[in-house]
């Protein structure tokens, strides 16, 4: 499919989140709209040299290795010899990898109110599909331990950093005390190698959360420092009856035959689009497998731990019921055809398996070839689910077919409905400033702005993306009223304020991208998407803002302290896309 001015992936997804994507897809320009052609672009850029200061000699490339190019996407002319202007970093350099302890699978741990849990970050050895890598892990587990805790429990987590980089733990989505949020430079200093920090973590909301570093997470999170926390409600009927529960923690690594593609040590690389991996992992392993009985209903807890990739998760055509997201259940359960999940988001979905056989758990998207100006369907198999012909031992089909309303959620939200129509308190524009990249890349990107995709499902220009670093690419959150950007922004609220935040993703920037925006320490409702009211609300902490979209959020500023808000594409965060806001405590 050729791309026009508003080219967009045509993906079937669940109601609500994809309204913006679907609206852009409906506006797709006619198929004969002239795109940037591979031949024309190549002729226009093939002879251009790098800009001053950009090394092009292969001898200067050190440990840098260009990432593998996807099938049918050639390297752009003019890229020969270029490499990121950052010191290459590979975990475990100089270490005998064979002597490292082998990583093991994540183990659930029940933590009671008042208990102390130890999390130790260390270098480990992982063998994936026959290749061995030096990676990171909490307690030697990949992912880290699955923390199970009851709602309103308070636990203590003794974190010790034994990796070679400063680190921390951010308790993503948890409305805990500010000083334990783990946001380096805002709520705490980084924990130096060999150092220890004790977190006091209070879990006020039932739901699905995760923990990860908040310093150089483009490296540390990508190499394995992450894990889930499931917070259970005291209400035994909080969720529907199911036959089993399963975690689906999605991740991807970028590798070649020599190992993991090096990172930028002094500045994040892949700064334009983020690091898209070519090795898919579910719960830390390739080829996820689950065995169920015919008629079983499985509750899946989905988390996206990837640096940059959004997924469109399918269960082989089996019916899916969406139950909950980040911090809460939805007002009403809804049937969906797939689950679209961007970095840092979580969803809880129930799936009924009625047909015996083996089905594929897949990521089905419309990928883009930026070089040729074309979309093409791409299906990544994440694993398989084997459905036995033996019938389920407990049939929950009637409950699965019932789309339950959650009056407790609606009642909570009712307190905020009078504020839905209030004026906008703050408006953010999401954009980018790119300077200092080679002329070949800049010229290509100028042509590339003739169209945009609301959501980037793949990296259609990995060679150019790899060369870009946080030294040349500056992702921006701009306060529209004041013109302040990123960490110059510090909004102030009083504890108990309810603020309407409008976020506009600029489609005219040099390289527009969808951004998953995360607010620390608070919760919000997505009120509207491109002017259309959201008919089924749930409390969230992360929301993907597609390119060209405008969304209104209602922020419940209930948790005092100075907090961060940022894009959760790890490389965008490292390239500046973060700001502060302060909730002043009530006297």
At a glance:
The protein has 587 residues and is mainly beta.
Helix-strand category:
mainly beta
- Please report the first level of CATH classification, the CATH class of the domain at 244-406: Mainly Beta
Helix percent reads under 10%
Global geometry: globular
Beta-strand level of the residues, as a percent range? 35-45%
The number of distinct β-strands equals 35
Strand order of the largest sheet: 15-11-17-22-19-20
CATH superfamily of the domain at 244-406: Cupredoxins -  blue copper proteins
Describe this structure in words.
This protein is mainly β. Among the domains are: 100-232, Cupredoxins -  blue copper proteins (Immunoglobulin-like); 244-406, Immunoglobulin-like, CATH 2.60.40. It is 9% helix and 39% strand. It has 8 helices and 35 strands. The strands form 8 sheets. A 6-stranded mixed beta sheet has the order 15-11-17-22-19-20. The protein has a 6-stranded mixed beta sheet with strand order 26-25-28-33-30-31, with no helix packed on it.
What's the helix and strand layout?
Layout: H1 19-26, H2 38-45, E1 88-89, E2 108-110, E3 116-128, E4 131-138, E5 146-150, E6 154-161, E7 170-172, E8 196-202, E9 207-212, H3 217-220, E10 227-232, E11 244-253, E12 255-256, E13 259-260, E14 263-264, E15 279-282, E16 288-294, E17 296-304, E18 311-315, E19 320-325, E20 328-336, E21 339-341, E22 346-353, E23 357-369, E24 374-391, H4 397-401, H5 407-414, E25 426-434, H6 439-448, H7 462-467, E26 473-479, E27 490-494, E28 497-505, E29 515-519, E30 523-529, E31 532-533, E32 542-545, E33 550-557, E34 561-567, H8 570-574, E35 578-584
């Amino acid at each position: 499919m050729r791309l026009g001015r508003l080219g967009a992936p045509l993906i079937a997804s669940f109601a609500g989140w994809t309204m913006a994507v679907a609206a852009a897809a409906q506006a797709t320009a006619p198929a004969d709209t002239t795109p940037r052609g591979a031949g024309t672009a190549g002729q226009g850029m093939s002879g251009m040299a790098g800009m001053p200061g950009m090394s092009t000699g292969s001898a200067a490339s050190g440990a840098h290795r260009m990432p593998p190019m996807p099938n049918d996407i050639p390297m752009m002319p003019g890229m020969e010899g270029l490499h990121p202007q950052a010191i290459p970093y590979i975990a475990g350099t100089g270490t005998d990898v064979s002597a490292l302890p082998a990583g093991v699978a994540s183990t659930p741990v029940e933590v009671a109110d008042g208990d102390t849990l130890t999390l130790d970050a260390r270098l480990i050895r992982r063998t994936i599909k026959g290749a061995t890598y030096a990676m990171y892990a909490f307690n030697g587990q990949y992912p880290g331990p699955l923390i199970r805790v009851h709602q309103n429990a308070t636990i203590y987590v003794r974190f010790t950093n034994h990796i070679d980089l400063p680190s921390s733990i951010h308790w993503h989505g948890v409305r805990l005390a500010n000083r334990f949020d783990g946001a380096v430079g805002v709520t705490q200093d980084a924990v130096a190698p060999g150092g220890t920090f004790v977190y006091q973590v209070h879990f006020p909301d039932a739901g699905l959360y995760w923990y990860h570093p908040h310093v150089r997470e483009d490296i540390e999170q990508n190499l394995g420092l992450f894990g889930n926390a499931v917070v259970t409600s005291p209400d035994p009927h909080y969720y529907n009856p199911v036959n089993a529960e399963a975690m689906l923690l999605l991740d991807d690594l970028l590798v070649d035959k020599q190992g993991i593609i090096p990172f930028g040590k002094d500045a994040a690389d892949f700064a334009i689009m983020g690091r898209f991996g070519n090795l898919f992992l579910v719960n830390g392993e390739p080829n996820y497998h689950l065995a169920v009985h015919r008629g079983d209903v499985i509750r899946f807890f989905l988390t996206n731990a990837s640096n940059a990739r959004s997924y469109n998760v399918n269960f082989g055509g089996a019916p899916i019921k969406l139950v909950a997201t980040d911090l809460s259940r939805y007002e009403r359960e809804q049937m969906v055809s797939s689950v679209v999940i961007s970095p840092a988001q979580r969803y809880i979905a129930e799936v009924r398996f009625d047909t015996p056989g083996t089905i594929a758990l897949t990521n089905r998207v419309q990928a883009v070839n930026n070089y040729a100006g074309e979309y093409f369907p791409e299906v990544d198999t994440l694993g398989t689910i084997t459905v036995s012909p033996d019938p389920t031992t407990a049939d929950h089909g009637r409950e699965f077919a019932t789309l339950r309303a959650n009056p407790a959620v609606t009642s909570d939200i009712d307190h905020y409905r009078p504020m839905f129509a209030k004026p906008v308190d703050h408006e953010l524009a999401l954009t980018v400033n790119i300077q200092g990249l080679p002329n070949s890349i800049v010229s290509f990107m100028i042509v590339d702005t003739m169209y945009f995709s609301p959501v980037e499902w793949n990296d259609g220009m990995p060679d150019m993306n790899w060369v870009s670093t946080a030294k040349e690419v500056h992702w921006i959150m701009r306060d529209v009223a004041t013109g302040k950007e990123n960490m110059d922004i510090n909004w102030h609220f009083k504890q108990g304020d309810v603020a309407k935040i409008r976020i506009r993703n600029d489609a005219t920037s040099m390289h527009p991208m969808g951004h998953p925006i995360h607010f620390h320490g608070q919760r919000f409702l997505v009120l509207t998407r491109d002017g259309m009211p959201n008919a089924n609300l749930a409390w969230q902490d992360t929301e993907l803002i597609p390119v060209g979209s405008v969304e209104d959020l209602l922020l419940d500023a209930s948790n005092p302290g100075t907090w961060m808000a940022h894009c959760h594409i790890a490389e965008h965060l490292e390239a500046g896309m973060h700001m502060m806001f302060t909730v002043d405590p009530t006297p």
